[in-house]
Amino acid sequence: QVQLVQSGAEVKKPGASVKVSCKASGYTFTGYYMHWVRQAPGQGLEWMGWINPNSGGTNYAQKFQGRVTMTRDTSISTAYMELSRLRSDDTAVYYCARSRTYYYDSSGPYYFDYWGQGTLVTVSS
Amino acid sequence: DIQMTQSPSSLSASVGDRVTITCRASQGISNSLAWYQQKPGKAPKLLLYAASRLESGVPSRFSGSGSGTDYTLTISSLQPEDFATYYCQQYYSTLALTFGGGTKVEIK
User: Fold this and answer.
1) SS (H, E, C) A24-67
2) Cβ contact B49–A116 (<8 Å)
3) Which pLDDT value is given to residue A104?
């Protein structure tokens, strides 16, 4: 069965960086796009961007461009999201989520059929 | 970016009630819409995609409809396990995916 298992909670100071991992199993990791979505406490869902695990190609939401980097290690079926220059309003649960988008077809669809369990990132001085 | 406006932001309903949630896009999205259910402390769960297609394993009391800019999620007979927050998401704009603000369904 498909599983996305994320790394554990992090506490960071403002200005620091955080790197969250997402290990995939139960399917061909390089076959489908992987996305990152975050949720601030008590708030809604916010899409951050995607990575094509096959090519390494990325697309970031405009809000995060210049601060976010999405990478992958195909040898261990793991995707990473690194967010830099952290601020207090980056405090959120960060999810990885797979979309039903084959690696060779960037036209989509880009809805999320499997999600990780979430990683709480707390930014506090 | 395409803005997604959900209404209501919250509602109170009883078990057995019919519940309808609306999602309006700021421009036409050609049925490129998904609905998710999220329970406290859990990741969202996909319910429907392509506006009206039920994800495998999701009970048939959930249904979706709509076209153009206006879409609805209907729960035909609310069950105790359906009390949760529901989100819509457009994927028409593949480079800028956006979610609605959410609808919290509470027990009356």
Assistant:
1) EECCCHHHEEEEEEEECCCCCEEEEEEECCCCCCEEECHHHCCC
2) no
3) 83
